[in-house]
Design brief:
The chain is an alpha/beta fold and 362 residues long. The chain has 14 helices and 13 strands. Bound molecules: pyridoxal-5'-phosphate. Pyridoxal-5'-phosphate binds next to helix 4.
């Protein structure tokens, strides 16, 4: 990195921010895109037409409904949010992670995350000045190291604990009993991030009634609407009322509100796509496990984590790119992920192309 001239005044940037690396996304440049847990299916034509008709009516010259009341109603109904709890919408769940941290940020405070997990927790926590404690998962199966989690909660008294359920990039669900113990032990907020709930058949939403310090985070991104940028947070009214104060008033734009509402009215189409992805996940896992050069872990999400046992992950990643396939190379991102890569479940033909290319590389 070259030294910037003093006039630029970069010394004003907080040291924590200067030390960060921006969240990097590889340019897919026409590759088969299996790197970002997107739903590979498009909408059928019968949906495209009425959706575009609806967008015609949208008043693009007006600010959006700041409360997105109608959209919230649909989310509540379709996602079966208990009436006792409130909803807060974000421009992606990423924004909600930022907003939670913004509301509780203060010097000397701590955020706790089991790691490896979703990179944005640490990135945003560090950017906002938190001390971020990562508690390593168990190396063999990526389960929580419950004793280490309990000790870290006691020692560091974190303002927020982030728990992705299922976890990204490992794909597993943690023991819900252990999660409940951690929620009971935690002195601050516990955010259960259910970005992959549609693929997992497991949720801690019912536990909201038992724990006042629990928030459940969801997104429509992995469900098939990554381009819209819509996340939602479910929790008790007192907590959400505080978080509402740091939300930008028009964070959910008119096109997102109209499109998400339309998609929720046709939720069965997305559900059908999810069923295909879950079916193909089993197929891809079985095929990966049949490769002698690969260890692959079971997944409750729409991706699979695997390790290359003979060739370095970097070489496998490059070879896959040459074969026209983009996955996520996780080597170097955490000690437990040495030589690991993550593949999202794509269309059947995309999965087949990936498996064929990989078999020739490992
Ligand atoms: C993808 C992902 C998110 C971010 O989702 P957006 O709503 O697209 O911002 C949040 N949490 C986890 C665990 C994820 O994998």
């Amino acid at each position: 990195m070259s030294q910037a001239p003093p006039r630029a005044g970069l010394h004003w940037v907080r040291p924590q921010v200067r030390a960060l690396q921006a969240y990097a996304v590889t340019n897919p440049r026409g590759l088969i895109k299996l790197d970002a847990m997107e739903n590979p299916y498009r909408w059928p034509d019968e949906l495209i037409q009425p959706w575009l008709e609806g967008l015609r009516q949208v008043a693009i010259n007006r600010y959006p409904d700041p409360q997105a009341t109608e959209l919230k109603g649909w989310l509540r109904a379709v996602m079966k949010v208990p009436a006792a709890f409130d909803l807060l919408l974000g421009n992606g769940s990423d924004e909600l992670i930022q907003l939670i941290l913004l509301a509780v940020a203060a010097p000397g405070r701590t955020v706790l995350v089991p790691e490896p997990s979703f990179a944005m927790y640490r990135l945003l926590a560090v950017a906002l000045g938190f001390n971020c404690i990562g508690v390593p998962l168990r190396a063999e199966d990526f389960a929580l190291d419950q004793a280490a989690m309990v000790t870290a909660i006691r020692d560091h008294e974190p303002a927020v604990v982030f728990l992705a359920y299922p976890n990204n990039p490992t794909g597993n669900l943690w023991d819900p009993q252990q999660l409940c113990e951690l929620i009971e032990d935690a002195p601050g907020l516990v955010v259960i991030d259910e970005a992959y709930v549609a693929f997992a058949n497991a949720s801690l939403m019912p536990e909201l009634a038992r724990y006042a310090n629990l928030l459940v985070l969801r997104t429509v991104s992995k469900l098939g609407l990554a381009g819209l940028r819509l996340g939602f947070l479910i929790g008790s009214a007192p907590w959400l009322a505080e978080l509402e104060k740091v939300r930008l008033p028009y964070n959910i734009n008119v096109l997102t509100q109209a499109s998400a509402q339309f998609a929720l009215q046709h939720y069965s189409v997305l559900q059908g796509q999810v069923e295909c992805i879950v079916r193909d996940r089993q197929y891809v896992l079985t095929r990966l496990r049949a490769l002698p050069g690969v260890t692959a872990w079971p997944s409750c999400a729409n991706f699979i984590l695997f390790r290359s046992l003979r060739r370095p992950a970097n070489a496998v990643f490059d070879g896959l790119c040459e074969a026209g396939i983009l996955v996520k190379n996780l080597d170097g991102s955490h000690p437990l992920l040495a030589n690991c890569l993550r593949v999202s479940i794509g269309l059947p033909a995309e999965n087949a192309a990936f498996l064929e290319a990989l078999a020739a590389l490992v």
